[in-house]
Amino acid sequence: MKLICIGRNYTDHIKELENEKPTDPVVFLKPDTAILLKKQPFFIPEFSNDVHHEVEVLVKINRVGKYIDKKFAHKYYKEIGLGIDFTARDLQTQLKAKGLPWEKAKSFDGAAVIGSWLPKTAFQDLNNINFSLKKNNQVVQQGNTSLMLWKIDEIIEYVSKYFTLKIGDVIFTGTPAGVSKVFANDKLKGYLEDKELFSITVK
C-alpha cells in the first residue's frame, strides 16, 4: 500500500504559500507508516514547531492499473474519503530552500489521517463535492472538488504513468486554502458534504 499525494492542486492554496503554479501535478509519496492509527491522537513531532493541517479529498484504488486513460479512470475506484496531510512547514521550508526532497516534512509517523470511506455513488457529481475542516468547532478550511486544477480522473491518468496503482493505494488530491498551525489539545473534524469522516485530537 502506498499513499500518493498531489501538491498545489488548488489555486488559492498556491497563492497563500506564495508558490509557483505548476504546469503538471506535483506528486510526492508517503509510506504506510505515516498513517495515523484509528482512534489515536496526532502527536506533534519533536523536530517541528510549525505543523500545519491540510484537509484533502481521498480516493481509494480498487484494482491494479498502469497507464490508465482518463476515460477509464473511474473504473479504478469505488470509494471517496477525507483525510489530513500533516506538514512540518518549518522543516519543509528549510528543505525547499536547499532544493532537497520534502519527505521528512510530509512523511513522518502519523502525518497521514485517513477518515471513513463513502461509496462514490453517494455523490451526484465527483467534481462538485464540498468538504471542510473544523478546528475547535470553527471552520478553518473549505473546498470544493470543482476547484481542483486536476480532477480525480486526470490525477489517476497522470500518476499511473509513473507508478503502478495497486488495490488499497490511496490518493490525496490536494488541499484548499486555510492551512494553519496546530497546537496541543486542538480538536480537528473533517466533513465531506455534511458527513463527519474523522475526528482527532492533537497532543
Key structural traits:
203 residues; mainly beta; Fumarylacetoacetate hydrolase, domain 2; six-stranded mixed sheet; four-stranded antiparallel sheet; 4 helices
Report a brief summary of the structure.
The protein has a single domain, classed as Fumarylacetoacetate hydrolase, domain 2, CATH 3.90.850. Helix content is 13%, strand content 34%.
Notes on the structure:
- The structure is a single chain.
- It contains four helices and 13 strands.
- With 203 residues, the protein is mainly β.
- The protein has one domain: Fumarylacetoacetate hydrolase, domain 2, CATH 3.90.850.10.
- Strand 12 and strand 13 form a beta hairpin.
- The longest helix has 9 residues, at 89-97.
- The mean pLDDT is 95.
Topology record:
Layout: E1 3-7, H1 11-16, E2 26-30, E3 51-53, E4 55-61, E5 77-85, E6 87-88, H2 89-97, H3 103-106, E7 112-119, E8 130-135, E9 138-144, H4 152-159, E10 170-172, E11 180-181, E12 187-192, E13 195-201
For the record, the CATH class is Alpha Beta
**What class, by secondary structure content?**
mainly beta
Average pLDDT value?
95
- The count of domains is 1
